[in-house]
Amino acid sequence: MDRLLTAKEVAELLGTWETSGERFPRRLISERRITFVKLGHHVRIPASAVATYIAERTVQPVTARRRPVRKVA
Q: What backbone phi and psi angles, to 5 degrees, belong to 14?
């Protein structure tokens, strides 16, 4: 069983707690952009869903390609 996190815990994991509080995780839930579980009127997000959300949005760096030097006529 996966650990279920509150919106505040998710905001702290994502690093958005200082700027927007619980607003960003709650927006993810309302837009259905992240998996969540409803327990009565409580909403919880599995820790694996947060890890998946981060992994899907991680952008890998591009290695610099050297361009051939053009000769001037």
A: -80, -10
